[in-house]
Prior knowledge:
Elements: H1 3-24, E1 29-33, H2 44-52, E2 56-60, H3 67-78, E3 85-90, H4 93-100, E4 106-112, H5 123-129, E5 137-139, E6 145-148, H6 150-157, H7 163-171, E7 176-177, E8 194-200, H8 208-218, E9 221-225, H9 231-234, H10 236-250
Parallel strand pairs: 1-2, 1-3, 3-4, 4-8, 8-9
Antiparallel strand pairs: 5-6, 6-7
Helix pairs in contact: 2-10, 3-4, 6-7
GO molecular function, one term: hydrolase activity
InterPro entries: AB_hydrolase_1, AB_hydrolase_fold, Sec-Metab_Biosynth_Hydrolase
Domain AB hydrolase-1: 30-242
Amino acid sequence: MNCRIVSTFAVALITSAIAFAAQAAEIKNIVIVHGAFADGSGWRKATEILERRGFHVTVVQEPLTSLADDVAATNRVLDLQDGPTLLVGHSYGGMVITEAGRNPHVEGLVYVAAFQPDKGEDVATLAGSKPPAGTGIKQTKDGKYLYLDPSVFHADFAADLPKAEAAFVAQSQVFAAKEVFGTKVGDPAWRTKKSWSIVATEDRSINPDLERTMAKRAGSVATEIRSSHAVFASQPKKVADVIEKAAKEAGR
């Protein structure tokens, strides 16, 4: 093989490698799964920031009727994506993305003040291992659904949001079926895919030390933000920054 052929081959190989790397780094789809006692509307500010940065963002409005139903709702949205996707979950949404993250569209996972379970774990067991400061969860009269007492919602869920804004979230919260907190997850997607975690240091809904422990166990890249459990709404730019960084790194 003469020098000219070797040189041409080398250039072609390098060009292909550069093109592949550039293509692999292009994660533009963000799918967000909200937590219990809220809905997806609280993600509006963070979504607008990410869209201005060139991302395509979809927020799953899962029914909170069972973990299986919520995973199915997430997979329906993931299957609509036209390329690699970063899957984001807040609070109980972390349970959902741990299961739905096995979807082939998903390249990486971001846990935002979220449960990050291992195989066979459920919300009740995890929360009980390091109890949170807040104790305002109540059950409906029929005993089938849980909700966060509006009288403590501001303090326990969204202390760093304006009081009126927190009151509206409390009044519009989605009740969660009691069974979702006792359902165990299967093989966690974070074992095979890159993950990131945001620890809300003033969280009263999930103990911040539990968030740290779960992130360390999963080998997630952790970022601490001084915030309540509603960090996605009170600190949307900081949360968007973490998501953007994860999207760029997940594609490499």
